[in-house]
Amino acid sequence: MKKLIALLMALLLAVGMFAACDPRTEPGGDGELGPLDGVEYDARANEMYVDTKEGKSRIKISYTPGFGDTWVVQSARAFLLDELGADYYFEFDNDPELTTGVSSKLESGMNLSDIYFPLASNWYSYAALGYLENLDSLYNMTVPGEDKTVLEKITGTWREYGKAVRNNETNYYVFPGNENISGIVYNKSLFDQYGWEVPETVAELKALCQQIVDDTNGSVAPFVYPGTVTGGYWDFVGTNWWLQVSGAEKLNEFMKFESADVFNPTSQSSPSYGKLKMLETFEDIIVKNRQSYTLRGSASKSHTEAQVSFVQRQAAMIPNGSWLEKESLSGMKDEVRMMAVPRMAEAKDDTVYNYSGQPDYLFIPAEAKNKEGAKLFLAFMCKDEMLKMYTEYTGAPRPFSYDVSECEVSDFIASCLDIWSEATTWFEYSTSPLWTANKIKKFNSTNPYTTLLANADTISAIGWCSAEYSAVKGSWDSLVSAVS
Predict the structure, then answer these.
(1) How buried is residue 455: exposed, middle or buried, by Cβ count under 10 Å (0-12/13-18/19+)?
(2) Rounded to two decimals, what is the model's pTM?
(3) pLDDT tens string 43-58
(4) Which option is the CATH number for 19-176+360-408: 3.30.70.20, 3.40.50.720, 1.20.1300.10, 3.40.190.10?
(5) Where are the domains of the chain?
């Protein structure tokens, strides 16, 4: 009898919860997705429309879950409430497998979304195979309500990055997503508690690491890192140092891969001279002092586990990026900030760099059902107020000209945006067939950070760089032949 009563109570509770959690949000509701007044949002069908969807064209957008759903729901809502969106409704597809599965979706051509927003991946093959829509008309479209074209608002390398050659013609095939901000994230509360100064130079960073160990008797490690992730996120610091020494022009020269000599680490005129210098710095600070300057067990931590250790004050700093807030900082009581990557003594000049990793982009499939609606929506998202809203909801800037200082964001994101606003952002970009065919990489051997940490007694920075150069030089002719 008691079991029957318990079962009935559970059923009643479930019915009550189901009624309370009706996925169709009432107009004017304001939950995790932000205000929804003026639109109907059906969470079961993942659809949004004004009044009705009957007689309207669907725009379906697929995206990865890293930044949540609010940015896309609110962007769609703003579009639908504008006269431009009167003939449309939206379907949302939050797909955690999108980045790995997008190629098979394009190959099948079945049930395609109108817009895809995967994480960084090599899209050139998609363009070459005719899977992607030509976006020249989108780039040349005037931003709704503004005077500039979309292309005129795009900044930096992104003005060229979206181009690819197909049938001997160069056109735009992908559209700017967001720019990640990476570097060293630190626990400001710990820094304030112990009176630690934010380092501006590599020498100051090294001294700070020892000071953290001394002041806390080793109870707080200077760094924690995710060792199970290739490179342990150290490249967010390392490539910044490389940029400081060689400059963006030299790294762009490197990314052309015109000869094996761009991997020569000992010639000061070679782009890889900066690679050697930064790895020697990593070796001097982190590798040689890994027992005391990195949290014990870091080598076996996932990115989530490393971030938990940082949140729990086990380490004062972590190599990471602006996305950390969305991933791990929601329950953290301490104040957290990002610092500009400390300056190398060998730095070429005073340029501040932001290394954003491989770029995030959007595209429209060539076989999408609503290509024109998708283009109109993407152009609408380039309006100043939409760009600011995107940054406020995601914490990430987009590579367009707009004033991020007007965005209402957390103190952590504000510190990231301060760096981004003053920095030259660089990311890996190459049209070399060796790169697009995945025959050559920025680090064309084992990952240097992981290798140096795991083989500190047997492999040095110069040893790793020399071995990389030798291997590339020895296989260069066969690599070139493979893509000729």
Answers:
(1) middle
(2) 0.89
(3) 999 999 999 999 999 9
(4) 3.40.190.10
(5) 19-176+360-408, 182-358+428-483
